[in-house]
Amino acid sequence: MSQIRIPEKIFGIIGHPLAQTMSPLLHNWGFELMGVRACYMAFPTPPERLAAFVQAVRTLPVSGLSVTIPHKEAVIPLLDCVSPLAERTGAVNTLVWENGQLVGHNTDVAGFVSPLLEREAWHGAMPASALVLGAGGAAKAVLAGLHEIGVEQVTVSNRDFARAAALAAQFSANAVAWERRHNVEAHLVVNTTPMGMTGKAPDVSPLPREYWTRDQLAYDLVYNPRRTLFLREAQEAGADTIDGLSMFAAQGAAQFKLWTGLALPMAEAMDLLAGALAGEQAK
To answer: Of residues 9, 72, 200, 257, which has the active-site annotation?
Structure first.
């Protein structure tokens, strides 16, 4: 009879909706692999329940949380403090207890930059210009990451132009109306919107097919499905692509290290996630 592993710590993810999240798969696999007696759960949390849930976290034995759409910005006033990077970014995706305080971190920045740094090692240079589609919490992490790696020509476009303009001003970027996004010439185009995501807007792209050329790089933060229409159309035009699974795995590994001090094996983590996605899409 195998020994029953009783968890000593509880972690989880808050957001709404959470039906498609792969965070429990990644973190529970990591806990099992590393021998950490912990479990990770999904806590679907609509916006009107966010404050009450965070207050409950202060009394329940919850050791840490992932934070996803739509709470990455709204959760900040409910915390004791945030890390310097999270403060600069203006968005939080990870909660950690530190010296009795509930602290917000942002691992999305490192997760976003990681595949670009790997690509630079192969291609020898970073993109000179970027177009960021969307202006939410994920877009903030993207702009912070682009700033860190030295991409100077950055343009933001969002359906709500005021949000795009505010985000652009925060990072000394440009803003353009959503209706004119396809007129922006950029080497790198990053989709931070839910367009193309399973369960939200499948088979929809935030850009027309005619936009793409072979000299561009399309980067989609959506990871389910792994090959969105956005990426497929870019690839058909000869552009390079990066899917959201790479960022998801990297930001999740950074969360895991914040909580446990342990490093997940990235190649194995990618194999796990890719296999799960392939199995889901084959159903």
So the answer is: 72
